[in-house]
Amino acid sequence: MEYDLSSFVKFLKIIKILKKEKPDKIMAWMYHSIFLTFFIKIFYSCEIFWNIRHSNFNLKFTKIKTIFLIFFSSLFSHFIPKKIVYNSLSSKKIHSRYFYSKKKGRVIHNGYKKFSNKKNNNKNFVISFIGRNNPQKNHQIFFETLNLLPLNLNLKFLLIGKDIPELKIKYNNKINKKIASKISYFDERKDIFKFYKKIDLNILPSIYGESFPNVVAESMSYGIPNIVSNIGDSKIIIKNTGFLLKDNMSAKELSIKILKMYALWKNKKKWKTLNKRCVKIIYKKYNLKNTIDEYCKLIYN
Fold first, then answer.
1. Distances in Å between the alpha carbon of 28 and those of 7, 143, 203?
2. How many CB atoms lie within 10 A of CB 15?
3. How far apart are the first and last CA of the chain?
4. DSSP label at 182?
């Protein structure tokens, strides 16, 4: 959405498509498409559903346009959508605070269909940080943590996400050379499931915005425990399988929690039990079939 004449032309194309296909229900995904439903409601008659997948936002890093969309949409949330879907309890709570309709809010968590217990055959303790190169993800604290870890441990690090290779240029000369040699950088991947089979621990120290962090539940479905910041529904997802970082997290805190996981990994029996617990939680509570059933009930009842 460029907020110029080209967007108006695109909107006319959307209306043309709607009148040709004649859908009786539309689900708007995230704030920009939610904004469009205000105009769609004027030119086309159907049931509209909103889908919000964001929790708190940081004024320092969030675009002014996005902030405008969030609060503009709250005004019309009381009469445009039939229902508002949130993918986390925290998202619903926060948006209700932003004056979104409480009556129309409904939580449907993400769902997963692939489940696999981790095999304990890695020679190294492989730690992943999966997420795009963005201030929200807080890569800075990760690199600060690396300098606090002992050099004699069997560690490997995988950084995966959009524009991640740029971090190598930014941080490589700020960390110990021995640690730097243990880091592999990957841009956004479509074959992320191949990596899950090699990963032992995933970390996500985001500072804002996470609602239901997909990478946390997805990695857990492969038996991978997580160390995550206490944002969104992370606490509910990981339960007793990993560690939560404090709101004022520090590199020291993250390093201590990584070392605790490393010590547990050395005990193969206990680590295997932890892997199975991760898979069990996601399979029982966030199975894709359950998510699909919830959407069907929402839309067709």
1. 17, 37, 31
2. 14
3. 33
4. T
* Domain match, 241 and 157 both: yes
Domain count along the chain: 2
Q: Is 22 in a helix, a strand, or coil?
A: coil
Strands 155-160 and 183-186: parallel
Whole-angstrom distance, CA of residue 226 vs CA of residue 128? 9
28 occurs within a structural domain: yes
Torsional class of 239: left (φ above 0), alpha (ψ -120 to 50), beta (otherwise): left
Which residues fall within 8 angstroms of residue 277, CB to CB, at 6 or more apart?
Answer: 240, 241
More confident residue, 124 or 7: 124
Residue 249 domain boundaries: 125-285
Same structural domain for residues 149 and 231? yes
- In tens, the pLDDT along 247-279 reads 999 999 999 999 999 999 999 999 999 999 999
- Return left, alpha or beta for 35; rule: phi > 0 is left, psi -120 to 50 is alpha, else beta: alpha
What is the pTM for the complete model shown? 0.89
